Amino acid sequence: MATANPANAIEFGKHNYGATMTSYTITAAADISAEVNPGEEVGQILECLAQHGTVMGLSDHATGGTVFTVTMENSSWADAAAVQTALQALSLSTAGAMTVA
Fold first, then answer.
1. Phi-psi category of 38—alpha, beta or left, where left has phi over 0 and alpha has psi -120 to 50?
2. What is the domain extent for residue 96?
3. What is the pTM for the complete model shown?
């Protein structure tokens, strides 16, 4: 049996898999929970985000269909403000004035 390397510390809060994951919480101006077909607003939002990383997950929507979280792997977005600017530039009718945190 192999001997454990004493230099390999066990640490809480460490995940030893894949790449860095980043989550963006998006708040739309109105309910977008029904805008899920190809070409509709949620699809356009995910396509926009995917230009700078791999979309790994989309949370359930909350607060009347206006708040949801997108989790990305290897996101190259500078920060939430850059995501917000890009999403607002889409000029979506339902989600046009969205904010990102």
1. beta
2. 30-100
3. 0.78
